[in-house]
Structures are given as C-alpha cells and as structure tokens.
Amino acid sequence: MTTAELNPLPSRSVFLGVDVGTGSARAGLFDENGKLLGSSSSPIQIWKDGDCIEQSSTDIWHAVCAAVRAACSLANVSEVEVKGIGFAATCSLVAVDAEGSPVTVSWSGDSRRNIIVWMDHRAVKQAERINSFNSPVLQYCGGGVSPEMEPPKLLWVKENLKESWSMVYKWMDLSDWLSYRATGDDTRSLCTTVCKWTYLGHAHMHQMSEKASRDMEACGWDDEFWEEIGLGDLVDGHHAKIGRSVAFPGHPLGNGLTASAAKELGLLAGTPVGTSLIDAHAGGVGVMESKSDSDSLTKDVDTLCSRMVLVCGTSTCHMAVSREKLFIPGVWGPFWSAMVPEYWLTEGGQSATGALIDHIIENHVASPRLANRAASQKVSVFELLNNILKTLAEETSFPFIAALTSDMHILPDFHGNRSPVADPNSKGVIFGMTLDTSEKQLALLYLATIQGIAYGTRHIVEHCNAHGHKIDTLLACGGLSKNPLFIQEHANIVGCPIILPRESESVLLGAAILGAVAGKSYPSLHDAMKALNAAGQVVHPSSDPKIKKYHDAKYHIFRSLYEQQLSHRSIITEALA
C-alpha cells in the first residue's frame, strides 16, 4: 500500500512535467498555484566519440518511468490527482522502425544508439551544403540551418548509414517521441517542427487559433526544399516519416496515456497528455509571465515583448517573442507559435555555457584539490570559487570583483558560435595565461569564463534590439541561474534587471503547463502561464558607473577576439592555398 493511500488527501489537481535533458530525465509535480510539490531525476546514458554524440530511446524511457514514479512517491501524489502530463526534451533526433523499435544512427552499428543528440556536430558539412542552396525556408532560421538542426543530421544518415536510412519508419524530435511513446499519437509539435525541421508554422496562421486547437494537417513543409537538398523521399506518404499532422503545444494527444504507458509510469490510463515542447522552450513557458512588483503596476500592458528568457544549462537559449515577425541575421526564427501560441519567437543561443564552465574547471590542475575541499566543506565547487573571488577582491586593490580579470579575456566559442555570428567553426580563445596553476588562478579563469558568456548574451541582446526587438528585462532559469555570480555578472554586463522565478524548476513547470492545458484546466497555454508563472528575486545591474565603464571596455575586447580569429583564419587559408 502506498503512503498516498494511507493518508488520503481531498482530491486536488496536480500537473506532471517531464524534462529529458542531456544527462538525466526529471519529473516534477505542481499544484494549481504553480508550486512544486516534489521532483526526482534519473540519469541517462550518453556515448561520445569525437563529433558523434548518441543516446538510447529505450534507456531514456526507463529513466522517465523511474523519475515519474519516484516524484509521485516523494510528493505523496496519487495517480488519480494527476490531471495532465507534458513532456519537454532536448532537440535530439530519434530513429524508430515500423514496430517502434530503435534503429541505429551510430557508426558502431549498436541498435540501442538510435538518437543523435542535439549537440552532435557530425553534420557540419551537410549543413554548409544545405545552406548553399539558399532556399526560402532558410530565412526563417536566421539565414541558414545549424548542424544542431535535424535536416543536416538526416542528410548525414542517408549518406553514411544507408541500411539504417532504409529501415527508419519515423524520424522524430525527442520530445515528440516521448509523447508518441506515451499516447501512440505521432502528431508533432509546432515547437519542434518549426524550430528544428524548417516547418513553416505560419502556414496555419489564418486557419485557426490556439483556443480552437485540433490536430492540423501538416501544410507547412516546403517539399521543394527537401527535394533540393537530396531528401525528397521524406515527402512521400504526406510526410509520414517526419510528420503528417502538427498541433500547438499543449494540445491534447490521442486518448491520453495508453494502458501500457500508464502502467510503466504508475499513472492512470487516459490521463491527458499535451503536445510537447523543446526543453528550453518549456523553460520560456515556465517563466515568461513571471511578474515582479514593478510589473504588476502595468498589468494591462503586454510585457512579454520586452523580455528575453535565458534558459541556462549545458548550453543557453535566448528566447524573445514579438507580435510582428522579425528577421534577424544569425539568430534562429522568426518561428510562429513555436513557444507562446500566436506570437513569433526569436531564438538566440550559445552552444556551450554550463558545459564550458565545467570544462574549464575540470581540465585545470587545481581541480581535484578544489573538489576535495568543496566536498569536505559540504559546498559546491561554484560556491567555493565564488568565495575565493570575494577574498581575492578584499586582499587586492581591485575596486570590485569583476576587475580581477582585467588582463584575462575569453571568447566562449569552444563549441562554435550559434548566435549572432552563426559560425560553427568559431573557436574558443583564452587571452592572458601564465604559468600559475593555483586555485586562485582557476578562480580567475572561472570568472573570466562567466564574463565571456555574459558578453555573448549582451551581443545577442544588442543584435536583436538593433533588428526590431525592444528587450529591457531578462528572465533566467536552469542550473546556471542558481549561481549568484553568474546572474549578477549578466545583469551588470547586459545592463538589464534579471527576474528569477519563484520555482527554480522552470522547465519542469513549463512541461507541466502543457499537461494542465491538455487536461482543460485552463482555456489556453497563455492563460495557464499567467496563472502558474511566479517571480522570485529580481537582480538589478550595479549602479556604479566604474563597473559599467569596465565592462564596456572588456566587451570591446571580447568583440575584437572574433574579428582577430577571422583575420587569422584568412591569413592561414592564404598560406595553405
């Protein structure tokens, strides 16, 4: 007998969000005030071999089931109380056959490895080739596809793994596959198809509104594009392999959970399941309507269009919405209804942020020493580094912590530049190294990395505002947003206040909102966001003009690091010609 049966609670409405990130599957349960009742996570397997990064859909589903069961137990929530479920996941590419079994996408031939992970860069050449066609659809992804999008990855499989290519019955984004696995309904999300597959969501613009939501026949595929790039076979059977029907995020799928999926998850068959979101976009849905005290004075004004959400985890996604479509070179979008229905989405991003900070720390000689000290003090490595920096600033004559890196500058493009220069070949730069291998030197390197990431965000915000956005407020969620130094440096460098959500698990909340909408607890996704988003702390930029002057100078150097790289590239190309 479960604890929930021993202590029966009056029936309440609970919404379940599932988020599959790069390293784990997580589940969270929220009440009708958007308050987190309990969450749990379960690790997932990943295979890395150079540019090839792969996962297993079977392994992921087992992890999802384990996380959901553990979260329900921890939160003391019974299956009857769960009124809706939503899935969010990385924009990784899943391959299954006609039976729904995995088809390998790996050189190894290992059939478990049927997912090309979002950050996999095997298809850089295919992306370049696709972009050389200058198809009209490319103007809706910043002028060109990234190797992290699905068409280049599909082309890579067709050219390199012919047997797998012929066996695949469905190609799906991971979040769509999760909702398909749960319901048996393979309707795709406007979020995944528009953001990662070049689907033109605005083909549905005059057809309907979100409130009259239903499965829509997929009329936004550009068949000429697929034929031109060499993937014309995906057009066959009304695009059966890549998506015959699409729906707004939160639209109810099939008849809810199938009996078999419900049994695996420990939930009731028929529980409503909402059309999914990419994980970063779920973060946007989980925070974008969070109102600070000053916002509540202007409650009738549409504040959404002056905000940018930073979803900062392994990578950072920069999400902004507008009523008008804005074409911004080097920034993905404009995507219609890909996050908030009936708004155009602009999506900037940095491919390695949390991953880069970890890389800088873990590859430093002082790292093991630091990790042991953090463990013995029962604090995180980040907390320890933040304390070292405070002590350093007090011991030296530097007027503020940020000035400790006055002779160290970092270009954070260690995994290319996603936006706004959209150069997957860009490389990271560390300027100002010495023979020092102390913990103090690692702390400075860590600070300079955070600053480099924040200068990259400033570049994205300035670029978007120069092309029609009016962003004056940031919202931040994800693992990195829990680091006060990361947030304060971003506020100081970008020059905007940053609203943090009341609930730290914003991606899970965004996913749960999909379930709330599918279960008809709210009339629309936007209504659910207004009801369930809530602001926590607001971090303001420093009012010290010296800090602003310092960051303006460092930002100028930051911008020059990429310009120098381009110059060096052309010098070497000429020398090798």
UniProtKB/TrEMBL annotation:
One of its GO terms (molecular function) is D-ribulokinase activity. InterPro entries: ATPase_NBD, Carb_kinase_FGGY, FGGY_C, FGGY_N, FGGY_RbtK-like. Coiled coil: none annotated. It comes from the Eukaryota. Residues 309-518 form the Carbohydrate kinase FGGY C-terminal domain. Residues 15-286 form the Carbohydrate kinase FGGY N-terminal domain. It holds the Pfam family FGGY_N. Keywords: Kinase, Transferase. This is FGGY carbohydrate kinase domain-containing protein. It comes from Capsella rubella. The lineage of its organism: Eukaryota, Viridiplantae, Streptophyta, Embryophyta, Tracheophyta.
